[in-house]
Amino acid sequence: MPNITYIDAHGESRTVAGETGSTVMETAIRNGVPGIEAECGGACACATCHVYVDEAWAEAVGRPEPMEEDMLDFAYDVRPTSRLSCQIKIRDDLDGLVVRTPARQG
Questions:
Q1: What is the SS3 assignment for 67?
Q2: Residue 52 to residues 8, 73, 97: CA-CA distances in angstroms?
Q3: Is this prediction's pTM over 0.70?
Q4: Measuring CA to CA, how many Å separate 58 from each of 31, 32, 40, 45, 98?
Q5: For the chain: N or C, fewer Cβ within 10 A?
């Protein structure tokens, strides 16, 4: 099971095991990770699971699809590595992935 590290806006870090095939958002919700609200439940219909992918992982995770880019317009403090965590599928090669949550969700 790949490990995902979530770092909140205060710098507090939490590493949890994610199930291959699930999403970074689902893993956060299942493990009580603060900072990810996921109001739409992962339907890419809101921006409340916004994260910043660590620069070292940006290429491996990839760029957002057009629908995700549209939803990021509603996110708070969007940056070049912004993604919606509901759209990042966990794969074995993402073991060690680091994401940061913004100070608040959109």
A1: helix
A2: 10, 14, 11
A3: yes
A4: 23, 24, 24, 22, 10
A5: N
**What's the pLDDT score for residue 106?**
79
Residue whose entry in the numeric block shows the structure tokens 């956060």? 28
Question: With contact defined as beta carbons under 8 Å apart, do 23 and 44 qualify?
Answer: no
Asked if residue 11 lies in contact with residue 31, where contact means CB atoms within 8 angstroms, the answer is: no
Report whether 83 contacts 55 (CB < 8 A). Answer: no
All structural domains of the chain: 3-96 (3.10.20.30)
- Structure confidence at residue 86 (pLDDT): 98
Cβ-proximal residues to 9 (8 Å cutoff; 6+ apart), any chain: 35, 100, 101, 102, 103
CB 42 within 8 A of CB 56: no
